[in-house]
UniProtKB/TrEMBL annotation:
InterPro entries: AB_hydrolase_1, AB_hydrolase_fold, Carboxylesterase_BioH, Peptidase_S33. It comes from the Bacteria. Belongs to the peptidase S33 family. The keyword Lipoprotein does not apply. This is Alpha/beta fold hydrolase. SUPFAM superfamilies: alpha/beta-Hydrolases (SSF53474). Residues 27-268 form the AB hydrolase-1 domain. One of its GO terms (molecular function) is hydrolase activity.
Length: 281
């Protein structure tokens, strides 16, 4: 594994890491983490595939190990940053694997630069419909999961929003296996970095403006790339929200992993590995 700094076209430095070996017949894999405002937590995913191909991970602008900055917090800017990562590692047409918010970012990149992408793997996203398709149900499901342990829910409610403990408790709701949920969430928070809330708020507000628009549907309908959608069946974000994207894409396949939540590679690593491998040309 080799860590490096990628310089974006406006001079901001982005943390990135490359592992594995590239082969002439297998395109490299670039991982786009969730958030927005978080950092890469996908080292386990990289290990699944770095015996097959080169794998690149990176921390998005102003987040995690990347240089602190004042933005700008726009999808267009993050797409340009992802292209800087691609160019830094001389990746001609990688497979993009985006998780959660990173799935939306990877989709936006593919829509902007389809000639620079071999395939798209869209993991645990929220589709392209309006917020009403998923957000209310997500909040209700989050409280229900946390409420299975009333003490855990009460503690989550009393903690400040920027505390590591609160994040771990909230992330524990992402896992189906309730006995190991906090353990899995603790791994997500190691190492721990401050959450970039201005980034989170700005990008979420932008997403609400573009979700469900005719332009978004039309762009997806015109995307001539193979796309794999991977869902954890028991994600607390309703999987029906992703139907909007599945219906729009002309070249799409969908795999739903039973018994897995929002991070399906944690709870069904074999199923996740098999699904993603089929998407790598």
């Amino acid at each position: 594994m080799r860590n490096t700094a990628v310089t974006a076209d406006d001079g901001v430095r982005l943390w990135a890491s490359r592992s594995g070996r590239g082969t002439p017949n297998t395109p490299p894999l670039v991982l786009c983490h969730g958030g927005p405002g978080l950092w890469d937590m996908s080292e386990d995913v990289a290990r699944m595939f770095d015996s097959r191909t080169a794998v690149v991970r990176w921390d998005q602008r102003g987040c995690g190990r990347s240089e602190p900055c004042a933005g700008p917090w726009t999808t267009e800017r993050f797409v340009a940053d992802l292209d800087a990562v691609r160019r830094h590692f001389a990746l001609e047409r990688p497979v993009l694997l985006g998780h959660s918010w990173g799935a939306s970012l990877a989709l936006s990149y593919a829509l902007a630069h389809p000639d620079r992408v071999a395939a798209l793997v869209y993991v645990s996203g929220i589709g392209i419909g309006p917020d009403a398709d998923w957000h209310g149900a997500y909040e209700a499901n989050l409280l229900a999961r946390l409420g299975e342990d009333p003490g855990r829910l009460a503690r989550w409610r009393e903690l400040p929003g920027d505390s590591r403990e609160r994040a771990v408790l909230q992330w524990s709701a992402e896992f189906v296996d309730r006995k190991r949920a906090v353990e899995h969430a603790e791994r997500m928070a190691d190492p721990w970095f401050p959450i970039n809330f201005p980034c989170n708020q700005a990008l979420n507000a932008e997403a609400r403006q573009t979700a469900g628009t005719p332009a978004r549907y039309a762009a997806c309908q015109a995307l001539d790339l193979p796309v794999l959608i991977v869902d954890g069946e028991r994600d607390i974000r309703p999987r029906s929200a992703v139907d909007s994207l599945e219906r729009a894409l002309p070249r799409v396949r969908r795999v739903t992993l039973a018994g897995a939540g929002h991070l399906p590679w944690v709870e069904d690593p074999q199923g996740f590995r098999e699904a993603v491998t089929t998407a790598m040309p």
